[in-house]
Amino acid sequence: MTIKESDIVNQAIASRVHSFRKDNRLSLDELAKRADISKGMVVQIEKGRANPSIGLLCKLANALGVSLADIVAVSDEPKVIIRHQHDIPTLWHGDKGGTARLLAGTKGSVMIELWRWIMLPGEIFTSDAHSKNTMELIHVEEGSLAVEVNNETFTLNANDAMTAQMDVPHSYSNTSDSAVTFTMTVYEKSSQG
């Protein structure tokens, strides 16, 4: 992602977080407390000066009673939606060139997201626990993916699938010599919804 593209994404996030906060009549302090992040970080996000992680955006979405897709503007009213490649945000960049793209998601407090991940050899993504009862469905298209859930590691090879409750610390890593591509569906119900 070029700097210009990330600036556009961050400004869209800033505007939507600010709007959702105002709609919920929350002060910066109240949102920070609900999301369990610092007030300073909320301020930086609303000014478009932060490059928030996926985990941080999930905390904000949960605290605001909306979906992550609402915050990054990839959700729409229920109808047929076509999202072209140039409109799909990349929300994670691995240190070796891997990516995680939020392909689609639902609006509101019941969040369903569809992700496409590409992890290059040696890359890892670590996540804090999601909200209670969050489920992830993972399907490996190619390569080998190590998924750690609450300190237990599971290996998924091409065409393997997994369903896991992710309200515990977890991570995804590529410990192989070739790229791994996987899709993920996340189901989470906001504690505010």
UniProtKB/TrEMBL annotation:
A molecular function GO annotation: DNA-binding transcription factor activity
Domain HTH cro/C1-type positions: 17-71
GO cellular component: cytosol
Gene3D superfamilies, alphabetized: Jelly Rolls, lambda repressor-like DNA-binding domains
InterPro entries recorded: Cro/C1-type_HTH, Cupin_2, Lambda_DNA-bd_dom_sf, RmlC-like_jellyroll, RmlC_Cupin_sf, TransReg_Diox_bact_type
SUPFAM superfamilies: lambda repressor-like DNA-binding domains, RmlC-like cupins
SMART domains: HTH_XRE
Record's keyword terms, sorted: DNA-binding
PANTHER family referenced in this protein's UniProt entry, alphabetically: HTH-TYPE TRANSCRIPTIONAL REGULATOR, METHYLPHOSPHONATE SYNTHASE
Protein name: Transcriptional regulator, XRE family with cupin sensor
Organism: Pseudidiomarina planktonica
